[in-house]
Amino acid sequence: MSSLGNLIRNENMKIYRRPRTWLMVGFLILALGLMSGLMKWDESRGSGGDWQTNLTQQNVHFQKQLQDNKNLDTDDRKFFSDRIKINEYYLENGIDPTKLSLWDFVNNSAMLIMLITILTVIVAADMIAAEFTWGTIKLLLVGPASRTKILLGKYVSTMGFALLLLAISFAAAFGAGAVLQGIDGLSLPHLTVGADGIVHEGSMIVDSLQKYGYAVISLFMYVTFAFMISAAFRSSSMAIAFSLLFMLIGNVLTGIFSSYAWVKYLLFANVDLTQYLPGHMPVRPEMTLGFSIMMLAIYYAVFQLISWFLFTRRDVAA
Fold first, then answer.
1. How many Å apart are CA 30 and CA 288, to the nearest integer?
2. Three-state secondary structure call for residue 281
């Protein structure tokens, strides 16, 4: 285990001693700052209308939808009904849901996890391929550590980098929200309608962490795929190009073939678990959260197996 610890420490040194890594961190912080500034600017130019009147008008519209559209499916009917109850709760308790709070900054920062995924994919795709590009792979393999431990050390270090970016994103968004909006909204409740039809108050931080958690699943899978591509190609640029192309066209392909039943077996159709949150619809109506988790587990095992096989069996004599 000590040799694995040394390998992880060595790989971390390779990651964090490169100027590119800190440029990535700086770029992420800059993107978060820009997002926060735009949110504050958008709030300042708002109409400042009567939120209570707006919510009342929304409820009238939702009631009309429920009454006039008898053919609404169960999910749509539940969505309108839940929104009416939550709006009534806001009105009864004097909570303005349109007022920007620090949690809005945190929740919107979850959208930047796609950027974190891209940055981590660049590191992951470079982890193995770069050893061949630089010609350092032989020096790495002549050591006492097995190829399996070397591969594991690289993978753990890459995931550690991803977790660092996630922590920076959450902390920076929280800090920006606190500076720009204050901490008055820290105790705001997250409202949901339970199975009993009653509005329940929940924790905003739990909701934010849940949003991050769902987004992390896609990061986890795409980075693992990039790691596999890195093991398959000796060129860092080719590994990065294939990984990013695969990641960026996935949603497009899913949308194009969403009418076919077999699309539910694709990685892209299952990697976004937010499709199972209330108010969202899965790619295919027959898909369930359990099915997507099973498919992700299968893909993950296949990616890891291919990575291990290619790395441990590759001839590096040339």
1. 37
2. coil
Q: Could you tell me if residue 39 is inside a domain?
A: yes
pLDDT of residue 121: 86
Confidence of residue 318 (pLDDT cuts 50, 70, 90): very low
Q: Is residue 281 part of a domain?
A: yes
Is the Cβ–Cβ distance between 257 and 278 less than 8 Å? no
3-state secondary structure of 201: strand
Q: Give Rg (Cα) of the chain.
A: 23
Give the predicted TM-score (pTM) of the model: 0.83
- Split into its structural domains, the chain has a count of 1
Q: Strand ranges (DSSP E) for the chain?
A: 189-193, 199-203
d(CA 52, CA 58): 10
Count the Cβ atoms, other than its own, within 10 Å of residue 281. 12
Spatial separation of the C-alpha atoms in residues 16 and 232, rounded to whole Å: 24
d(CA 133, CA 316): 12
Contact predicate 83/62, CB 8 Å: yes
Instruction: Count Cα atoms within 13 angstroms, Cβ side, for 46.
Output: 14
How far is C-alpha 250 from the geometric centre of its chain's CA atoms?
15
Domain range spanning residue 111?
2-313
Asked if residue 318 is part of any domain, the answer here is no
Tokens of 270: 């299952």
- Cα separations in angstroms, 41 against 46, 155, 169, 183, 292: 9, 40, 20, 19, 39
Give residue 137's pLDDT.
73
Q: Is 175's pLDDT higher than 80?
A: yes
Residue 190 falls within a domain, yes or no?
A: yes
Distance CA 22, CA 43 (A): 32
Structure tokens at 222: 């795409």
